[in-house]
Amino acid sequence: MTNRGVIETPAFMPVGTQGTVKAMTPEEIKETGAKIILSNTYHLYLRPGTKIIAHAGGLHRFMHWDLPILTDSGGFQVFSLNTLRKVSDEGVTFRSHIDGSTHFFTPEKAIQVQNILGSDIIMPLDHVVAYPSSLDETRDAMERTIRWAKRSKNYHQEWEKQALFGIVQGGIYPELRKICCSALTEMDFPGYALGGLSVGEPLELMNRILEVAVPLLPEEKPRYLMGVGSADALLEGVARGIDLFDCVLPTRIARNGSVMVPEGYLTLRNAEFADDMRPIDPECQCYSCRNYSRAYIRHLLKSNEILGLRLTTYHNLFFLANFMAEIRRAIREKTFDLFYNNFWARFKSKKQKEGNK
Fold this sequence. Notes:
There is one protein chain. This protein has 357 residues and is α/β, with parallel strands linked by helices. It has 2 domains: 11-247, TIM Barrel (Alpha-Beta Barrel); 254-349, no CATH class. The chain has helices at residues 26-32, 41-46, 50-56, 59-63, 75-79, 107-117, 135-155, 174-187, 203-213, 231-239, 249-255, 287-291, 294-302, 306-332, 336-355, and strands at 11-14, 37-40, 69-72, 85-87, 92-95, 102-105, 121-122, 163-164, 166-168, 192-194, 223-225, 244-247, 258-261, 264-267. The chain has a 5-stranded parallel sheet. Strand 7 (121-122), helix 7 and strand 8 form a beta-alpha-beta unit.
């Protein structure tokens, strides 16, 4: 429950990094079934800047979106800058990827910026490490994340308007994840995120970490797995108790001509679809599938027409929103195990067919 509406979980959040879900209008995002989107503090802080967004009346008004927004603190983006940043216990000094200007983010600064944005769910600054990283490096980052979480919680004042989640770090080391879960739950956040996963490790390894960490987080509070957006990973996350997900995957692959179907993915740029008059997914009821053929969308993509990537993006977002709705229905009807097994029987059959070619 947020001030801007109820979010039924488990749910997937489309990513609108810079205050827009690429290629889509807010009205179209709602049509796909999404009830919450994610935007990024780092990018919005650099461009257009907090002064302009504050002048507009906050991020919701600025981007014409009246449903909930979750903002990431920008920790992942800052730490992905590598040579452009320097970390200390006080905060992170980084150079803008846009113009090279120098900025300093403290945990307090990250909260301050998100207070100005006015997002409904906010994230503290955390220290993300690459995969693989050593035990010592991961432990240092995890301990720093805990200290920063405490500072963020102490600084944040807008609790009735904005829910601040804690972020569990610890890499691929179960003992570190346990320590971080314990420290954060003692701080009593209204929700918890699991960060530092889906950064290159195998799905099986991520699932093992979820099996360690999720049971240590309060069942009555939202549990959010950051950066996961493939149907198989979403399903496995739900099976392990995850409530919220986000990822650029569905929109990014759509712009490259890849679409999601129950069996996996189709690459519509491929020649095999040149005269294929079927919809992307014959079972799908999205706008793209109700009105256009694979052949036509391939033609648009090959011709670099904007409509092509809009149609693939619409379909992928609808596909995941509908997928999550089906999962929620299966949970309510106590048929999740059947849903899970049916999904993998179909998903794997596609892989087996490809392997036999």
